[in-house]
Amino acid sequence: MTAHETTLAYLGWRGRWVLALVWLAGVPLFEWLYIRKFPSLSPSMGIRSIPVVEAGARLLFGLATTKELAEAVAEAQRVGV
């Protein structure tokens, strides 16, 4: 079990249902905000580069979905790069 699941199970076992619901919604929300805001936070944290994926002439940087990566690779293969 992950720490998230363990904490959720503990709160449920102790009868802290409201806190368990806040935890259930809050942790994924925090993770989503962190992932979405990380590129804008990285310069203030001293990180000067964000990973880049090059597929042919196309560059994907920051957050890219699996679908976007697959499309970029398929496009590069069609072009023959």
Structure description:
- The protein has 81 residues and is mainly α.
- The chain is built from three helices and two strands, in the order ααββα.
- The protein has helices at 3-13, 17-41, 66-79; strands spanning 52-55, 58-61.
- It has a two-stranded antiparallel ribbon.
- Helix 1 runs antiparallel to helix 2.
- The protein is elongated, with a radius of gyration of 19 Å.
- The termini are far apart.
- Which runs of at least 5 residues are low in confidence (pLDDT < 50)? none
Q: How many structural domains in the coordinates? A: 2
What is the arithmetic mean of pLDDT?
81
Whole-angstrom Rg: 19 Å
Shape label: elongated
* Fraction in helix: 55-70%
Reading side by side through the largest sheet, how are the strands ordered? 1-2
Strand content: 5-15%
Beta strand count: 2
* SSE pattern, N- to C-terminal: HHEEH
The total count of helices amounts to 3
- By secondary-structure content and strand pairing, the structural class works out as mainly alpha
- End-to-end CA span: 43 Å
User: What composes the largest sheet?
Assistant: 2 strands, antiparallel
